[in-house]
Amino acid sequence: MASASEKRPELDDRTSRLLDEAIDLVIRRQNAPENFVTLQTISAWRGRSAEHERVWQCVAEAHGLSGAALAEPAKPRLTRRNLVLAGTLGLGAGVLGAWGLPSMRLRLQADQLTATAELLPMELRDGTRITLGPASAIAMPDHGETRAVRLLRGMAWFDVAPDPTHPFVLELNGGVETRTAGASFEVSQDAGVVNLAVARDEVELIGTSRYGIGAGRWIRLDTETGHPETGSRDGAMAGAWRTGMVVAEAEPLETLVARIARWLPGRVIVADAAIGRARISGLFDISDPERALEAAVRPTGGRLRRVSGLLAVISSV
Question: 111 forms bridges with which residues in the sheet?
Answer without folding.
Answer: none
